[in-house]
Design goal:
Elements: H1 2-9, H2 13-33, H3 43-77, H4 82-86, H5 90-115, H6 117-127, H7 142-159, H8 163-181, H9 188-194, H10 201-204, H11 225-230, H12 251-255, H13 257-262
Length: 279
């Protein structure tokens, strides 16, 4: 346990970059071998667009990283936050802290973005992707990257997370997000083993269906149980899914970077349907 703490306390930037690049590479190769949907689109062009938004996410997080690090150092020094007040041993800090960081920093951020119109317009860029694969994981408008950073910082403050736990959480978040967006077929037996605890592709893909009510389900990033506990879980046959978001199905909305950067600043009316879709 102490080895894990020491490693993530001093994790080099090069190792964090390797986690990002390595994860994309591994899941990209698996997608080529066992895809759920055949890659009948310009996979490299699609990846290029998503890599652009991955880069903007990295830049935003790099510029604001000192805030996150300073917050973590302060909660430990000031003995502030849940973990600090409970004075938990290392194993309990891990088992309690990781789910709480995921709840506040990821689930709550994601749920809130779907509930507040101005935040939803920034999050739309992620949902406009009509070909979900592992590169879609970090497809975030720069404005959304700031929003997510605010929630992550709030999570560190509330939880009282030491820096090793913060970096471990972020590393897991990157890999699990790449995994649960991957265009891969996960064997049913493996999904049954993983899904009670972790978000799997079969679970998360439902969230990317182009129509409500499925768009407002399965908000989790690392841990699947938050959706089940909080009543936002849905399960459907993934092969029936249509990716995208119904208000932004035009080609430019998902494949023109300039147009996509403008999306949060152009209000569009919500689509109305006579009958609720049941997959």
């Amino acid at each position: 346990m102490e080895t894990i703490v020491q490693y993530f306390t001093d994790i080099p930037s090069s190792h964090r970059s390797l986690i990002l690049v390595g994860g994309i590479t591994i899941f990209w190769l698996i997608e080529s071998a066992v895809p759920l949907f055949s890659a009948n689109y310009g996979k490299w062009k699609h990846a290029g667009i998503n890599f652009f938004f991955t880069l903007t996410t990295i830049i935003v997080n790099f510029l604001l990283a000192f805030i996150l690090v300073s917050t973590s150092e302060w909660v430990v020094t000031a003995n502030f936050g849940l973990l600090q007040w409970l004075n938990t041993p290392l194993w309990a800090t891990l088992l309690l802290g990781l789910p709480l960081l995921d709840l506040i920093g990821a689930y709550a951020a994601h749920w809130t973005e779907h509930r507040i119109p101005v935040l939803w317009r920034f999050h739309l860029v992620h949902h406009t992707d009509q070909h979900i694969d592992t590169t879609s994981a970090n497809r975030h408008h720069p404005g959304e990257s700031v929003i997510r950073f605010v929630f992550t910082t709030a999570a560190v403050l509330i939880v009282g997370a030491p820096i090793w736990l913060v970096f471990l959480y972020q590393s897991m978040s990157v890999v699990l997000s790449q995994f649960n967006h991957a265009n891969i077929v996960v064997p049913k037996w493996l999904d049954k083993v993983l899904s009670p605890v972790f978000v799997t592709p079969d679970m998360h893909r439902v969230h990317h269906h182009y129509r409500m009510p499925y768009t407002d389900t399965n908000f989790g990033n690392i841990f699947s149980f938050w959706d089940k506990v909080l009543g936002t879980y849905a399960a459907v046959d993934n092969r029936k899914l249509v990716y995208g978001v119904d208000t932004h199905m035009d080609t430019a909305d998902h494949s023109n970077i300039g147009q996509m950067l403008k999306i949060p600043f152009v209000k569009r009316e919500t689509k109305q349907y006579d009958v609720e879709e049941k997959l």
